[in-house]
């Protein structure tokens, strides 16, 4: 039988103090992952003595986008990411990813921090943030550390967060100059799907040439990774030199290089290739190139 | 296990309650407040039958512990009807035959109300997005979308 004591933190200090003082504490944000586990009386609750609700901790909320740097608080909901005008304008691929998650009711509660910390292989927030080169700030009473998001997940559902740490916020450098992006996702069902593959392509462009491309995918691999070989293929190329199909093939090969041949490879290989192809086509179109 | 003190405003009425550490907002609404219009379908965030409005937003009440929303304003389907009669949304649902077995209706009404409260003139797409977390096994959705459109027109008028 599940038994725990429910605690509520009202400030970041109070939250860090509780994590410092007590053991077997599980954080609770929007609850859209954890409440499903609770309903199923999941074994993970055997090891939980305290459930600590963090939704009243204002320091973990808010979106700040400057010219050079951006920050998203861990408690920011997907609904807030969808409706934030600055995100829509400057980082539309983040809004696109957020709007693809769950349903209106889920997006109103579910947080970006919970999506990352839960670390499902199919979590949709990873690919846009990895494409941005984002880092997560993990804070404990003793201080904070910054970790590249691509190094944050060790295995599906397992991150490097220590028991006394909270994911405070996500920080990143803003893309500079002229840039274009595309977010692609295929899921089993449109509205309420846990996605199978999602993909973000972000590219800074100068004089009709790709200066810095960043491709990242969620759920193509057991944990989300950047696709460096596709980046290398795109970097330095003029729009005319880019072949979307070739970019797709390179990504598909790179994925199989990471995962090896698996039962899902016959589906995922062409699916990922197609997503990358579409993303590259999107990018060229957005950039006004119609070769 | 010790109970927690919470204060909720439900359909305009203040309640001081003691809640358990595993008590969901859905349980509090149905069992403590005896407001049984809110339904439990899937219990895991998929069907929307348990939808209520918490601080102006549509939320699955099966996914929230009551203690998490201490101090909040909550609207349930019982909050729709007023002294002047049925709410325009309720009238539209009847008029457009958007109710068959009725199990999904309270949740649909709450999602639609949350939408119209923030966006009185929604497009069809916006209506669909607002209702995407509400499943209906009976109607095929078209009558429900028609009803929300009708309510928006009547309400705005
Ligand atoms: C019907 C339904 C549909 C869904 N659809 C999608 C979908 O399309 N795509 C998708 O990616 N996900 C989907 N999800 C999963 C879920 O909604 C997301 O993963 C969500 O973002 C989780 O956030 P939360 O705040 O609800 O997390 P919670 O359930 O509160 O927490 C999840 C985990 O993260 C930990 N945690 C939370 N916040 C922090 C923090 N700040 N620091 C450290 N640890 C923390 C918790 O301890 C817990 O282990 C869906 C879920 C449901 C029920
Ligand atoms: S009962 Fe809450 S969403 Fe189904
Ligand atoms: S009317 Fe029966 S489920 Fe919608």
From TrEMBL, chain A:
Q: Which domain of life is it from?
A: Bacteria
Question: Which Pfam families does the entry link to?
Answer: CO_deh_flav_C, FAD_binding_5
**Record's keyword terms, sorted:** FAD, Flavoprotein, Oxidoreductase
FAD-binding PCMH-type domain segment(s): 1-177
Task: Kindly indicate whether the keyword Lipid biosynthesis belongs to this entry.
Answer: no
**Example GO molecular function:** FAD binding
Q: What is this protein called?
A: Carbon-monoxide dehydrogenase medium subunit/xanthine dehydrogenase FAD-binding subunit
Automatic annotation (TrEMBL), chain B:
Q: Which PANTHER family match?
A: OXIDOREDUCTASE WITH IRON-SULFUR SUBUNIT
Drop me one GO molecular function for this one.
Answer: oxidoreductase activity
Give the protein's recorded name: Carbon-monoxide dehydrogenase small subunit
Highest taxon of source: Bacteria
Tell me where in this chain the 2Fe-2S ferredoxin-type domain is found: 4-80
Specify the signal sequence span: none
Q: Which InterPro entries match?
A: 2Fe-2S-bd (IPR002888), 2Fe-2S-bd_dom_sf (IPR036884), 2Fe-2S_ferredoxin-like_sf (IPR036010), 2Fe-2S_ferredoxin-type (IPR001041), 2Fe2S_fd_BS (IPR006058), Beta-grasp_dom_sf (IPR012675), Diverse_Oxidoreductases (IPR051452)
> Which pathway does the database say it acts in?
Alkaloid degradation; nicotine degradation
Which keywords appear in this protein's UniProt record, sorted alphabetically?
Answer: 2Fe-2S, Iron, Iron-sulfur, Metal-binding, Oxidoreductase
Q: Which organism is it from?
A: Halanaerobium saccharolyticum
